[in-house]
Amino acid sequence: MARRKAHGVTKATSSIFNELGAYPGLKEGAGEVRGELYRITDSRRLFAVLDWYEGSEYRRVVKEAVTEDGKRIKTWVYLYLPPVREGRIIETGDYARFRGVRKI
Asked: Which domains does the chain have, with CATH numbers?
């Protein structure tokens, strides 16, 4: 399996998290989303597994993100495709904080 290395915390500049029960879904939108950034090796192999795992409800796309030190980078994210109910947006854009999970 591909190796991964925590590379910091980042935020996407044009998407919103929606809480879908036990997991989040990233949708296009005007908010900010905070998340962890990883540098990986053997991405072709890893993406084959992740694409299979995420299934047809998600599409992997390249989005611009901003690191904590202000650097703009291109990164892969999975967008949730089905419609979501209104009122399910995580206003802070921080799923880990929303769920009370400690960050890296």
From this structure: 4-99 (3.10.490.10)
